[in-house]
Amino acid sequence: MSLEDRKAAARKAAFARRKAAHAARGPGDAGHLSQVLAGYRGVPVSGYMPIRTEIDPMPSMEEAAAHGRVCVPVIEAKGLPLRFARWEPGSEMVEGTFGALVPRDIEWVEPEILIVPLVAFSRRGGRLGYGGGFYDRTLEMLRRSRATLAVGFAFAAQEADDLPLEPTDQPLDLIVTEREVIEV
C-alpha cells in the first residue's frame, strides 16, 4: 500500500472518530486550550474558524483577543503557505477558499503561536491534516525565521498510534484535547 493510500485510510478512520466525538460532546471544551494560551498573553496567535466536526477554538480565541492579536488562516492559492488575517470577536466574516471563513477587512498578522486543526495526531507530535500541506509549508516557513509554537487542537478520540508521515510533515509542539494537554 502506498503512502498516499495509507494516509487516505488513516484520514477516513480519523474522520469517523472525530465525527463520533463531536456528536457525543458537541463542539468541544476549550478549557485546556485557554489555559495554555494564558501563558502566552500578548503573543500573536492564530486560531481557526471551525468547519464540519472540528473541535471549536472560538472561546479560547475570544479570551486571547482581550490580551493581544488573534488571527485566522487565509488560503491564497494551492501550494502556497497560509497567510493570517487579524480577527476579533464580532469581525465581519466572508467565505474564503475551501469554504473557510475569513475577515472581510484584511489586516495581515504574523503569528508566533498557531492553533492547528487536524484530522489525527500522535503523542509524538505527528499530525495528519486534510492533505493540502498548507500548515506544513506555513510552519516550515515561520520556523525558519523564529521560534513558532504549533499547538494541535483535537478531540482525544483523534489520537492514533501510527500515523503515515512524510519528512516534510511539520511536528506539533503541544496537543490539546478536551481531556488533557500533551507535551511533545
UniProtKB/TrEMBL annotation:
InterPro entries in UniProt? FTHF_cligase, FTHF_cligase-like_sf, NagB/RpiA_transferase-like
What biological processes does GO assign it? folic acid-containing compound biosynthetic process; tetrahydrofolate interconversion
- Please give the start and end residues of each transmembrane region: none
Q: Which reaction does it catalyse?
A: (6S)-5-formyl-5,6,7,8-tetrahydrofolate + ATP = (6R)-5,10-methenyltetrahydrofolate + ADP + phosphate
Q: What cofactor is this protein dependent on?
A: Mg(2+)
Magnesium found in the keyword field = yes
Q: Which residues form a coiled coil?
A: none
Q: According to the lineage, what is the superkingdom?
A: Bacteria
Molecular function per GO: 5-formyltetrahydrofolate cyclo-ligase activity; ATP binding; metal ion binding
Q: Which family does it belong to?
A: Belongs to the 5-formyltetrahydrofolate cyclo-ligase family.
**PANTHER family per UniProt:** 5-FORMYLTETRAHYDROFOLATE CYCLO-LIGASE, ATPASE INHIBITOR/5-FORMYLTETRAHYDROFOLATE CYCLO-LIGASE
* Record protein name field: 5-formyltetrahydrofolate cyclo-ligase
Q: What species is given as this protein's source?
A: Roseivivax halotolerans
